[in-house]
Amino acid sequence: MDRQLQDGFGRSIEYLRLSVTDRCDFRCVYCMAEDMTFLPRQQVLSLEEIERVAALFVANGVKKIRLTGGEPLVRQGIVGLCERIAALPGLRELVMTSNGSQLGKLARPLAEAGVKRMNISLDSLDADKFRAITRTGDLAQVLAGIEAASSAGFARVKLNAVVMQGRNADEVVDLVDFAVNRGLDISFIEEMPLGEVGRSRGESFCSSDWVRERIAERYSLVDSAEQSGGPARYVRLKDFPDSRIGFISPHSHNFCSTCNRVRLTAEGRLLLCLGHENSIDMRALLRRYPETDQPLLDALQAALARKPLRHEFSVGGEVQVLRFMNASGG
Ligand code: SAM
Ligand code: SF4
Hints:
By secondary structure, the protein is of the alpha/beta class. It has helices spanning 47-59, 78-86, 103-113, 127-134, 139-150, 172-181, 208-216, 282-288, 294-304, 325-328, and strands at residues 15-19, 64-68, 93-98, 115-121, 156-162, 185-189, 221-224, 233-237, 240-248, 261-264, 269-271, 279-281. GO terms for molecular function: 4 iron, 4 sulfur cluster binding; cyclic pyranopterin monophosphate synthase activity; GTP 3',8'-cyclase activity; GTP binding; metal ion binding; S-adenosyl-L-methionine binding.
């Protein structure tokens, strides 16, 4: 198969992030407001529609799909969906991002269904701070999920932490210790200004360079040119060869020039760039043309020609995109 989607700047689109639900059992302070209204069910893509979009992208050169949300594991039927997407001919890897709360029971079924790698969010190792950041999360349950994922047969398990001053910035080294002692990767993410979450974000912003300096006070860091097909830059630790430390820095290190991905929201809106509003309504096309994919492909190609060159977030700035992260699939 040599069909390949390209944008107007010649960047090949090989990576699709699919949000399978906007719902979640957590209410993380950087992602959601405390009191969220979720989409009515008929506005969310059905499992069959998600599968059809996935198949269309894979038939046109997408090699990697990440299922995300919201919390992907609160969607009924998620394991079966994974199994069907993982089996699409031409797909190199199906991966997932989860908050870990359901992995105690689902890690093994997901690995058996063909999910290759699992990213798990873990912002704090202190139960009270964890609860304060996630508003509803139970640290012990997530740690049990991480444990289950570590032995479920995934090729890799990676932790993700959004670092915020006054919340968990003092735990950066503890989180690295936790990851390396288990042979896991960990990525530190700069908070992005998505959605109005009821507080100013500038106050808590923590740059990747600051995080890296904290880690370097404890560990010998070795720069690495490794890529996982996503936006993270990696370093290795001299004494812990099994783990990689990633930095996802939308503010301080613009990663747009190598952008190879698009996102599909839970309601079927294809977002060409996380930092812009332009998008296409795939749900309308899926429902208008149940039998033929050509109109979808035409719309996709026309939209890709308009994919922006870069995003335009600013540090601690105003909210520029009114979507919440859970709706766009982080
Ligand atoms: N519920 C899953 C989870 O938490 O891992 C998957 C969806 S979540 C939206 C995906 C990732 O986006 C998580 O690692 C989360 O920490 C991150 N995230 C959410 N809101 C963010 C924001 N405003 N800035 C940076 N990262 C954010
Ligand atoms: Fe839920 Fe993930 Fe958003 Fe937290 S970051 S509220 S776990 S979707």
